[in-house]
Structure formats: structure tokens, C-alpha cells
Amino acid sequence: MEKMQSLEGFYQSKFDRVPENIRNGVGHFNVFKIDEYIGKHTKPVVYSRKDYFKITLIIGKNRIHYADKVIEIKKQALFFTNPQIPYKFEWIDDYKAGFFCVFTASFFHHFGNLNDYEVFKPNAIPVFELTDKQLEEIEQVYLKMQDGLDSDYEHKYDLLRNLVFDLLHYTHRMKTASKVEKQQTNAAQRITHMFLELLERQFPIEDVRQRISFRSPCEFADQLSVHVNHLNRAVKVTTEKTTSMIIAERLLQEAKILLRHTEWNVSEIAYSLGFKETTHFNNFFKKMMQMAPIRFREVNEGGISR
Fold this sequence. Notes:
Largest sheet: 5 strands, antiparallel
CATH class of the largest domain: Mainly Beta
Order of helices and strands: HEHEEEEEEEHHHHHHHHH
Number of strands: 8
Distance between the termini: 8 Å
Strand order of the largest sheet: 1-7-2-5-8
């Protein structure tokens, strides 16, 4: 898997230049039209994490490699990406159109936490198929972004933030969207939120020497200064899953990413994921996937980045 692409690297690779003051105190925002962008810059998109957020309106058949999933877009969709999850696009027909905007977390400083939105969470499916009517409405949002960015309007950056929020709230209202995350108002929700944050803070794994610190419910409970039974009850009530299952699912997701998109051997992957013995990792993977890690890599060998 390629190293995380920086915002500067994005501009350098696609435009051979980096805008001035790209990391200024306001944060960064830009919007592009896909057909113009692809027409001039044909370098392939590599599977990697990016250190910026991106919302893409895709018009045309596309295959998205996102974390350990492959998602097919048949006609048109909105796609949300964040710095935590690696991805790449693969156009599968000649028609390519749409828009995308890129922005940094600092662009929303004091305006909300982007990671609180369902579409930017690690376990979310961040692709939303659109009807023709919805497509027209979303296109208008991007056209307003372009007009606002090109204008001399004094408060244009506030306008641009509001347009991004329009996209976020639009998808949260769609029937096919994930449930809008409820405001965390009780102790069970708060402790679950802290547990999920602590779990996700251990990822991504980008170096063979990197190793996660916490793998068991007891270890997470100790870090959160609560009894493990309290943590387990809170997580079960809030997510309808056990603490162990959520940990296992996140470990499996990262294992599949590393098997598909790195050339690390199974022992190195097992070590990075906190398994004391490679056999323990093999047994875990077989239980979750009904196949050995080596077999999974063979089946998905086309995804390995070389």
C-alpha cells in the first residue's frame, strides 16, 4: 500500500504545482469538475490514505476500492472519504463526470467535528446511490461551491462550509443513508463513544514495526477507568454488538487491508495486530473469514500494491 498522500502531494501529482498558503490558518478547501480534471491529468489513482477529506459526486460506472471492500457504482453516487481509510477509484466505462471537493479538518475548526458524522466513521459504507432528481439537486450544490470559491464575497468560506454541511445533512436524510448518529446524552453512549475512539486511534497501521496496544475488552476498560462489565453493557446497549465483536471486526478489517495491499508476511501482520503467536492470528482469521490469511491473499492478489 502506498504511503498516505498529503494535500501537497495531491496537487503536485495532479497539477505539478502546490497553491500558496495551502496550510494557512483558515484551512484548505477546493472544488473540481471531474471531466475537466481527468481530461488533463491521466495519472492513475493509487490505493492509499489521504490526509484530507473528500466528497465526490460520481457520474458513470465506477468501482471503488474502499478499506477491505469493493463497491460498485452503477450510475451515479456520492462518495465520502476521510484520512483514516485507504481507497482508490476504478472507472469501468468511458463516461466520466461529476465533481469533487477536498478540504482539511482545520477548515472546520470551531464549526464542528467531521468525525462525528456517520459517513466519515471507519465502519460506515460511505457511498450513496442517487436518483436522477437527487443528482440534479447535488449538482446544484457543487455549482454553488464553484461560484462561491471564485467570488470576492467577504464570507465565502462560511458559505463553502455551509455547502459541505448541506451535502452531509442531505445524505443523512436519504432513505438509503445510515442512521443519523443520535446525540450522546447518557452514560452508556458516552462510554461507547470513548471506547470506539480509543479503538480507532490505533489505526491505520502503516509500518511493519507498528503494533496496536489494546485488543481485549479488559484492556480498553482499564484505559477508560471503568469496570469491564460496565463497558460491555454500555457497548451492547448502544451498538447491539459485544465489545469483543467490535474489536474483532476492526482487527479483521485492518488484516484484510494489510493482506491485500502490502507485501508483509503473515507473521508481520499478526505482530502488528497484537497477536502473540502467528497461529493465533491464523485461527482468528479462519474463524472470521472461513479461509486462511494466505488463501485470502491469493484470492485477492490483484489488490497488492507493488
